[in-house]
Write a structure and sequence with these properties.
225 residues; mainly alpha
Length: 225
């Protein structure tokens, strides 16, 4: 029965998020699912079925992908009602999804090892090469500039400021992405994050080097690359 529930959930999520252009598409969901199951296996912790279900459904209620949080919550609740699951399992899946979001660094405390593992898997997909690509996809969709030296990275933000405040995609590295490695819950995820963190730092180094070359040449009257 669990295999059939997973199949139904995959189909539902593909239909809901398959064509998303903000970095929250089916392939993101599948990577989070696979990383979560890998972490669970390496750590020898957590209930794999609950982890897989929560990973598959974690972006369904995301307010960024819905017309507000209430619409997303209703969608998740309605889908869970169609599944032949024990009430305890539904509540566990819901609790994981409700607590793993970053939300400007003010997310809710986690209540289970399953939540820690799914959160780690989701955060791993926000860093490294794929994280860089997803960040620029989301920034473009949201209408943010790639970089504006006059817009400073924010240190502390309310959820409203985090969601809707004026920033840039480069600033997002400092406001969230570079912080995630130190917020991971499991040793397995922290090891996986090391090379991804280094890649982001190297990317930013090259970005600023290229930015300065362009601006120096423009200032000196040289041709723009």
């Amino acid at each position: 029965m669990k295999d059939e529930i997973i199949r139904q959930t995959e189909e539902y999520v593909r239909n809901e998020l398959g064509n998303d252009a903000t970095g929250h598409d089916w392939y993101h969901i599948d990577r989070v699912r696979r990383n979560a199951l890998y972490i669970s296996k390496k750590e020898q912790k957590g209930e794999p079925f609950i982890i897989e279900m929560a990973a598959l459904l974690h972006d369904i209620p995301d307010e960024k992908l819905n017309n507000g949080p209430k619409q997303g919550e209703r969608k998740l609740a309605a889908f869970l009602e169609t599944l032949p699951l024990e009430t305890e399992d539904k509540e566990h899946i819901w609790q994981i999804i409700a607590t793993i979001s970053y939300k400007g660094g003010s997310g809710r405390p986690l209540s289970s090892i399953e939540a820690e593992i799914v959160q780690d898997a989701d955060r791993l997909d926000a860093i490294g090469a794929i994280g860089i690509a997803r960040t620029f996809a989301y920034g473009g969709k949201k209408g943010q500039p790639i970089y504006d030296p006059n817009i400073k990275a924010r240190e502390k933000m309310s959820l409203e400021e985090y969601r809707n405040g004026r920033s840039s995609t480069i600033n997002h590295f400092y406001e969230k992405l570079l912080k995630l490695k130190n917020l991971l819950n499991t040793e397995t995820a922290r090891k996986m994050a090391e090379s991804r963190q280094q890649l982001m730092e190297l990317f930013l180094q090259h970005f600023y080097e290229e930015w300065m070359v362009i601006n120096d040449e423009n200032t000196d009257g040289g041709k723009c690359l």
